[in-house]
Amino acid sequence: MMRAPRIAIVGAGVGGLAAALALERRGAEIVVCEQSPALNEIGAGLNLSPNALMALRALGVEEAVIALGCESDFLTIRSWRSGRIISRMRRGAFRQQFGAPQLSVHRADLLDVLRRALKAVDFRLGARCISVAARDRGGVARLADGGEIEADIIVGADGIHSVVRESLFGPAAPRFTGCICWRGMAAASAVPRDIAVAEGAMWMGPHGHVVHYPVRRGELINIVAHVDSDSWAEESWTRECDVSELTTTYAGWHPDLLRLYPYSARWYKWALYDRDPPERWSKGRVTLLGDSAHAMLPYLGQGAAMAIEDACVLSAAIARYADDLDEALLAYERLRVPRARAAVLGSRERARENHLASPWARLKRDVKFALRERFGRDKTVFQTAWLYGYDVGRELQ
What we know:
By secondary structure, this protein is an alpha/beta fold.
């Protein structure tokens, strides 16, 4: 009987845990090394589009995630100053249109569902990977404490600053996009009822936009504000700041936004980076997954979705080519690289259109959105049916 492959995963974020679950369900022996001393996560919201839910379905955890998330019937797109409704995208129809809903979740809740679904994974916490190397018929992850983890395959799921990626392809700095973000989280019960927060909303203005949407069954409101600026280049998600930064930056925007901001007890800011999408993700028996392979801007809401899809396809390829793991990694690349590349480049284009400075250009964009909503075949407004309609379960058949 063929021995189950031993697979080491570097990183215990969404992509790493999804990969661990997908591979464990197919019988692999899994080791996950994570540099943090505990499996915890800073508070942040995520939008999971229908393709992400279908990937979670393939992992057997879709219903558990839905139970902790929030579905809203509409995404309302508004003008930054007047609050005029530009478009109302009917998300409630996504189940029928794409086979799964659009869901907003707390990132910590998603991680908890993935972690609880795992049965026999060997977690190595406080294990910081400093390099990896491919070996004949396998690979090795070297740790900061001098230890090593050997495996038949090493998977780098360690984010945009991936040590695994650098070990494979050399150092290369990510691209600063010229955009900075603030994020906050407000208790829904504290927000005045005349501020509409029960559905997702996106306020589009010159050189920036703001989104807010409910998470955790509607108990919390996740708020993310974006602006074009080169005044801040630090990427940390844990850098706290004062709410006055937002009220100053968005002075002149709609009063409901300025009233909403103080209801978040804490605000964090970070700079947005991405990377040019590579043609290769693997070298020998070492491969990449999630942001380590295709770090992208958040403007198509596909970062988590792409990582979960990667996990499903990687596990299927390893199962299909169990007697030739080199071929398995090649098959994984062939299936994933074109789609991930399109998502990276599409997210960049979406960033440009979200932040148009010219009033005339914004008017033309807004009219286009309204016409798409009313008459277009792809009624997602942002023309993302090619993303949302992808069922990784069908890909694996």
